Each structure stands twice: as C-alpha cells, then as structure tokens.
Amino acid sequence: MKFMSYAKDRARGLAVETDEGFRGLPVSDPRFPGNLKVLIAEDRLTEGAEILADGAPIDPDAVTVLPPIPDPEKILCIGLNYRDHAEEAGMALPEYPAMFTRFNSTLIGHGQGLLRPRESEQFDYEAELAIIIGKGGRHIDEDRALNHVAGYSIFNDASLRDYQMRSGQWTPGKNFDATGPFGPCFVAASALPPGCAGLRLQARLNGETVQDGNVDDMVFPPARIVSIASQIMTLKPGDVIITGTPAGVGMGRNPKLWMKAGDTVEIEIDGLGILRNPVADAPV
C-alpha cells in the first residue's frame, strides 16, 4: 500500500495508489477515513486504503504533495550510519548510534522549494531512508522491532555544514526552515522486504548521480535503531526515524559540492519512489 498526503485548493486530503493511479478524498468528505497518522495509530491502513480507493482520481502533478506525516511528534536522525560515509567524513564507526533531532518546521513535501538560508552557502544533500513507527512502545526487543514499524518513506536530510560543525551537537545545521524534504509517499512495511533489506538508495543533483548506496551497508539496521531508540523514549505512532546517508555527500568531495538556487535534487529508493525538490534561496 502506498499513500500520498496532499493539499488542493487549501484543503488537505489523503490518496492511495491503485491500478488506475492515485485516488483519494479530501478531509471535508464524510467518507474521509482519517489522515495517515490516525490510520497508523488505529491500525486501519487496509480499511483506509479501501475507502480512499473509491474516491476521486488524484493527479500528483495537480496537487501540492505534503510530507506523508506533516506533524510527527518526534523526528529522530541517525548520523554516520553507513560505513563509507563515516570513512569519507574521516570519523570512526560509531559503537552507539549518533542520534540528533529535527523539528516539524524543517519539513517540506515533494516538489516544494528546498530553501538555502542566507546564513550559509554550505548546503549539502543526504539521501536517507525514513522509518515511520506504527505500534508504539518502550524497551522494544530488536527481534520484534520491525513489528513496530508501519512503513517507510524517503528523506533528504539537507544540512548546513558549517552550522552543523560549530559545536559538538549537530542540531543547528539540521534545523533551518524548509530544509527537510520528506516523501513523496508512505509505503506500508508489508509491501517491502523486512527492514528494507537490499534496497538501493541514490541521490542525483541536476541529473548526475552523487550518492549510490544500499540499506544493507548500514552500521545499525532499522530493527536495531528502533530498539535502541525505544530504550531512551516511548515511541509513538507516526514518529519518524531518519536512518543515515551513504558516501558521496558534497562535504566529502574535493572540491566541495554545495546545493545552490536553481539546482534540482532527487532522492530515489527502490520501491519507495523519487523525492524531487528544486533548490531556491530563502527570502531575505
């Protein structure tokens, strides 16, 4: 099952992919089954998909595609989680996940402008797999952690590298407004290999492939990440965990390769689609 959150004429809605393309309903329709976060929390994805499939055709190019979950309670990010990325960054493989946070104000959807702030030119791309929590919990064993995952999506963990490195905490460089492309869709875990094993992820900048990795190269795979995160906090339905990026980021190149206004960045993951965003300068 593949779901797309959208807005049209200022009204939000939810669509599901069918054999005939996306079909869906606006929030105002009496048949609307609830937004994606509600369907996940109430374990009603299948029911919701059946209702949405009887809705009107939805053309992704004729609507504003929103982040699959625009308002997650928590957005956790895992750094240095690919061996080749840690190597290009000149850093040792972590023995424990490097964990930091993003906030809702950073999120944008597929096709929306990825804004380079006026404070820095060191604007970098990061292709990442996003985990969306289904069944919440605390102290989740690794061998059952994937039972707590509702599905997956794509994330571009765009980073302001100079701000990221100004302190031991990476939060400043990861939380400028409109720097977190997320989407375009949510894909149910049942439609993908367990833990997305074997899936290829790529980043392209202006059509040129700049990152090309595989989920199997993670230091901490999805099940372990979910388990470790649940030792610290109670995970809730709709929480998002962003799982790290492979080698090829702009910071690791010589010369450096920074995103700039007029660029287009695409993140593609097998089975999940393509997340595409134009880059623009943030308004002064």
From TrEMBL:
Presence of the UniProt keyword Hydrolase in the record: yes
Name listed for the protein in its UniProt record: Fumarylacetoacetate hydrolase family protein
Matching Gene3D superfamilies: Fumarylacetoacetase-like, C-terminal domain
Keyword check for Metal-binding: yes
InterPro entries, A to Z: FAH, Fumarylacetoacetase-like_C, Fumarylacetoacetase_C_sf
Pfam families in UniProt: FAA_hydrolase (PF01557)
PANTHER family: FUMARYLACETOACETATE HYDROLASE DOMAIN-CONTAINING PROTEIN 2A (PTHR42796:SF4), FUMARYLACETOACETATE HYDROLASE DOMAIN-CONTAINING PROTEIN 2A-RELATED (PTHR42796)
MF terms (GO), sorted A to Z: hydrolase activity
Keywords: Hydrolase, Metal-binding, Plasmid
Family to which this protein belongs: Belongs to the FAH family.
Domain Fumarylacetoacetase-like C-terminal: 74-279
